[in-house]
């Protein structure tokens, strides 16, 4: 493999690994805050137990989120030195502010975890609130850098590469910043909620004492409500992101849809794959006019096709599949959450029936599926930008390191990520086996 | 003061603060391993400090990288290219250490193994970190066509590197012993205090000796730095004075009570000692970030970016200060936390 491809594979793997923990790191604190609030409003101790147990899981996940985040942060300079040179001049502001968000999160996380017993109740709530705020702020801020790569703004560049006329705030609030970072935050909340729903559904699969069933049902219901809301908002915001693509990165939208000819009344292609030989989408379902309508709200909107652009700047064709997968995940999960809530409301609640096994099993898979959606989304966003690292400013090859020692290091880090994944699962199961819910319940009531 | 100098001053302050907190952090991990289950509770005390703080120290490390990229993007380019291998190793060990520290808090069964892993990586990481210094002094970067790369073989066979590592490790252990001695004193664990104090008594002279040897055996390419260091000798004289005052204070009587040593004073005086020496070293190193190709003037960022970063630092610090204050109250001062068994 040549160095550029290796660097991309290496970096993509590091981010793909980090993002699992980072997303839960944004999503879980929201669930903890909600549980703490319900606890303080209703006085129901089950919610305090939930908050406590989720915090425990969160703390373990943070043990991987933080070092893996440190890795990607530093690897940006190691693998993409050419890119970071421009970043430093133009868009270092969000990185810098993000550090403050990290500090906020780290400070209050320690306070919430290690000083909870010495704090008044209201201060506990304040601490989790700041943890949640720090987490979502860091996600939004890091996304700002990524949005700037997709729609760079706030500087000018001479042909020899000299950067001038820098305006850091314009770079920060680039055209896709609001839509994309909102999408990132909402999908992280959605994923956190589905992750909790997965665990609760899994616990409900086995026979348990009534008291514990009630506890898990509360968790399931609460997480489904959040998940439903967030899935709904995330599809709206995803739609908005696509409209931003239409305006600012037309070749990405064209590749996502496998659209080659520029046209009005453009069709939406669902499923299938883009055949590089015939240059069309094969085995997909076409909905006439829908793409034009989605892109700007009118059927006669002109949507640009790939032929409009030089071939060497076409994104890879597989982004069509990635895009479909992400949207598919969103639609399926929105449907699932809606159905489960509906079922609960009309059958389970009124007739005191429990959820059927198949529904519980589908819910068990909702968390991992949502996480896959996040991964598809990022790989789509990043590889859909190819061959550019900074859209129309710097190519990936220019950004990449020229160092040739990547192979061994890549292997070393693959080993690290595998090790950490296995350990995280082992530690979490060991801890929750030793401290079952029943134990926490006794402690609180006794 | 020019903008470049202001930026490097801020950078240098961050590096200094991190090197103190990092030393204490990594050192505490090491002592927690050594004194695991020790009857004096010395290990417990190290851990009690480490559990809530390592995350913040780690964030400081990220701050260093980010601030460097923001202030000196060209420097990030050069160091990013050259340091790929050593920095990747640092990241690798850092990940192992952080993860195992958190895991050991959650499961009891494997505590020992986890302590050993996090303790040993606590020695490896600073050794690799300090390698930046000899590299920045010149002589270890080769140019091949258009790209620069690190002469790994030359670096790893050079005595300069190992002397720097020795200096780094002794300093790490000295500073962390002093800090933990103070922390043990505040926690009312007199036995643990004595243990850390005797470690410090042993380590103090070693740090001085290793510093001396590092200077004496500096690589020939670093001639320029030696010449500059001689010009800054006043700072080193002051630093040496601070060392003797600090070291001597290990034998001062305790205030109003029987007992020996004033650990808080010793710690602060030692920080001053390292601070003074850092000023001398920093001044001698200017204007180079990496000798001889990269100066702060060439590496500097866009002016507009510089000013918006400055504003953010001020706003950020103002927002975070109360948080740090609460944190300090809860974990470094609150008797209920410190004096639990
Ligand atoms: C969806 C949100 C999200 C995304 C897209 C990213 N991160 Fe992240 N990151 C987080 C959400 C997050 C987080 C949840 O907020 C973490 C986990 C623990 C923490 O303190 O913040 C975090 C931790 C974290 C840390 C450790 C901070 C510390 O020491 O406390 C660093 C350096 C980064 N990240 C850097 C990055 C970089 C360079 C990214 C992309 C290029 C990135 N993150 C993508
Ligand atoms: C349901 C409809 C959805 C639509 C129409 C949609 C649309 C989009 C679009 C157009 C982008 C690219 C933005 C860009 O490259 O600038 C994107 C990115 C992304 N999507 Fe979605 N998305 C949907 C659902 C989801 C779901 C369910 C998830 C995860 C659970 C998700 C996670 C992401 C992530 C993490 C990114 C990358 C960050 C970004 O660039 O915004 N998306 N999405
Ligand atoms: C956290 C979720 C993210 C994931 C999973 C992700 C994934 C990827 C993948 C798979 C690639 C390789 C693309 C390819 O080979 O086709 C890549 C490239 C890249 N990404 Fe992202 N990305 C994420 C977020 C970000 C963010 C927030 C930034 C900016 C700070 C970023 C910066 C880059 C850079 C610089 C490259 C290399 C150049 C390029 O291929 O364009 N990524 N990423």
From TrEMBL, chain A:
Q: Which residues cross the membrane?
A: 15-38, 58-83, 95-115, 122-145, 182-205, 217-236, 322-346, 358-380, 408-432
Q: Where in the cell is it found?
A: Cell membrane
List the PANTHER family hit by this protein, alphabetically.
CYTOCHROME BD MENAQUINOL OXIDASE SUBUNIT I-RELATED, CYTOCHROME D UBIQUINOL OXIDASE
Question: According to its record, how does it sit in the membrane?
Answer: Multi-pass membrane protein
Q: What is the lineage of its organism?
A: Bacteria, Bacillati, Bacillota, Bacilli, Bacillales
Q: What is its main location?
A: membrane
Family per record: Belongs to the cytochrome ubiquinol oxidase subunit 1 family.
Looking up InterPro entries in the UniProt record yields: Cyt-d_ubiquinol_oxidase_su_1 (IPR002585)
Q: Which domain of life is it from?
A: Bacteria
UniProtKB keywords: Cell membrane, Electron transport, Heme, Iron, Membrane, Metal-binding, Transmembrane, Transmembrane helix, Transport
Is the NAD keyword given for this protein? Answer: no
Organism this protein belongs to: Fictibacillus barbaricus
Name of the featured protein: Cytochrome ubiquinol oxidase subunit I
Automatic annotation (TrEMBL), chain B:
Give the UniProt subcellular location, in the record's own words.
Cell membrane
Query: What topology does it adopt in the membrane?
Result: Multi-pass membrane protein
- Domain of life, per UniProt, equals Bacteria
Q: Which Pfam families match?
A: Cyt_bd_oxida_II (PF02322)
Keyword annotations for this protein? Cell membrane, Membrane, Transmembrane, Transmembrane helix
Is Transferase found in the keyword set?
no
- State which residue ranges cross the membrane: 6-35, 56-73, 79-103, 115-141, 161-180, 200-219, 234-253, 265-286, 306-328
Q: Which family does it belong to?
A: Belongs to the cytochrome ubiquinol oxidase subunit 2 family.
| Protein name (record) | Cytochrome d ubiquinol oxidase subunit II
């Amino acid at each position: 493999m040549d160095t550029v491809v290796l660097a991309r594979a290496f970096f993509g793997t590091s981010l793909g690994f980090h993002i699992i923990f980072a997303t839960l790191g944004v999503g879980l604190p929201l669930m903890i805050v909600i549980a703490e609030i319900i606890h303080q409003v209703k006085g129901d101790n089950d919610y305090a137990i939930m908050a406590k147990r989720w915090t425990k899981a969160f703390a373990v996940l943070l043990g991987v989120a933080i070092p893996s985040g440190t890795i990607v942060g530093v690897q940006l300079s190691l693998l993409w030195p050419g890119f970071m040179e421009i970043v430093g001049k133009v868009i270092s502001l969000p990185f810098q502010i993000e550090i403050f968000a990290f500090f906020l999160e780290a400070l209050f996380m320690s306070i919430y975890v290690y000083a909870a017993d010495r704090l008044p109740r209201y201060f506990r709530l304040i601490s989790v609130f700041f943890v949640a705020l720090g987490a979502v702020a860091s996600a939004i801020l890091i996304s700002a850098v990524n949005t700037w790569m997709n729609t760079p703004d706030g500087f000018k560049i001479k042909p020899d590469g000299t950067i001038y006329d820098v305006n850091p705030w314009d770079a920060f609030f680039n055209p896709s910043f609001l839509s994309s970072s909102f999408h990132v935050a909402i999908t992280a909340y959605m994923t956190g909620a589905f992750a909790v729903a997965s665990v609760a559904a899994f616990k409900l699969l086995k026979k348990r004492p009534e008291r514990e069933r009630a506890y898990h049902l509360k968790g399931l219901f609460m997480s489904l409500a959040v998940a439903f809301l967030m899935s709904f908002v995330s599809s709206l915001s995803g739609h908005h992101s696509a409209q931003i693509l239409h305006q600012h990165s037309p070749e990405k939208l064209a590749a996502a849809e496998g659209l080659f000819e520029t046209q009005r009344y453009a069709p939406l292609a669902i499923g299938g794959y883009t055949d590089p030989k015939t240059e069309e989408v094969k085995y997909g379902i076409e909905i006439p006019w829908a793409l034009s309508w989605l892109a700007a709200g009118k059927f006669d909107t002109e949507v640009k096709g790939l032929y409009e652009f030089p071939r060497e700047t076409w994104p890879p064709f597989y982004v069509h599949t990635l895009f479909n997968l992400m949207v598919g995940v969103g639609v399926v999960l929105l449907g699932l959450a809606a159905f489960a809530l509906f079922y609960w409301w009309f059958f389970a609640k009124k007739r005191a029936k429990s959820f059927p096994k198949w529904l519980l099993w589908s819910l068990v898979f909702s968390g991992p599926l949502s996480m896959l959606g996040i991964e598809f989304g990022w790989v789509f966003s990043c590889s859909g930008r190819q061959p550019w690292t900074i859209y129309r400013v710097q190519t990936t090859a220019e950004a990449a390191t020229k160092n040739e020692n990547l192979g061994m290091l890549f292997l070393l880090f693959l080993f690290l990520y595998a090790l950490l994944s296995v350990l995280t699962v082992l530690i979490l199961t060991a801890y929750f086996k030793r401290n079952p819910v029943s134990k926490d319940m006794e402690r609180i009531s006794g | 003061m020019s903008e470049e100098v202001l930026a490097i001053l801020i950078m240098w302050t961050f590096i200094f603060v991190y090197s103190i907190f990092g030393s204490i952090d990594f050192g505490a991990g090491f002592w927690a391993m050594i004194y695991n289950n020790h009857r004096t509770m010395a290990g417990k005390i190290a851990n009690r400090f480490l559990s809530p703080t390592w995350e913040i120290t780690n964030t400081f490390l990220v701050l260093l990288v980010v601030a460097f990229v923001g202030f000196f993007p060209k420097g990030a380019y050069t160091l990013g290219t050259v340091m790929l291998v050593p920095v990747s190793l640092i990241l690798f060990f850092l990940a192992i250490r952080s993860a195992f520290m958190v895991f050991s808090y959650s499961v009891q069964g494997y505590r020992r193994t986890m302590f050993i892993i996090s303790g040993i990586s606590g020695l490896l990481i600073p050794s690799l970190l300090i390698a930046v210094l000899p590299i920045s002094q010149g002589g270890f970067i080769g140019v091949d066509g258009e790209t620069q790369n690190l002469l790994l073989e030359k670096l790893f066979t050079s005595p300069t590197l190992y002397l720097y590592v020795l200096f780094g490790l002794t300093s790490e252990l000295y500073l962390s012993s002093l800090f933990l001695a103070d922390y043990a004193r505040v926690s009312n664990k007199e036995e643990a205090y004595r243990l850390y104090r005797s470690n410090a008594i042993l380590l103090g002279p070693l740090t001085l000796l290793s510093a001396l040897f590092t200077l004496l055996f500096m690589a020939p390419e670093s001639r320029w730095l030696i010449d500059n260091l001689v010009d800054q000798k006043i700072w080193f004289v002051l630093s040496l004075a601070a060392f003797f005052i600090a070291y001597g204070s290990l034998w001062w009587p305790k205030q109003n009570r029987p007992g020996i040593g004033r650990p808080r004073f010793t710690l602060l005086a030692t920080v001053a000692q390292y601070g003074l020496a850092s000023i001398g070293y920093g001044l001698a190193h200017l204007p180079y970030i990496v000798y001889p190709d990269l100066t702060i003037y060439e590496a500097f960022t866009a002016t507009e970016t510089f000013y918006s970063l400055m504003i953010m630092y001020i706003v950020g610090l103002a927002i975070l200060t109360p948080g740090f204050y609460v944190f300090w109250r809860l974990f470094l001062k609150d008797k209920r936390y410190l004096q639990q068994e």
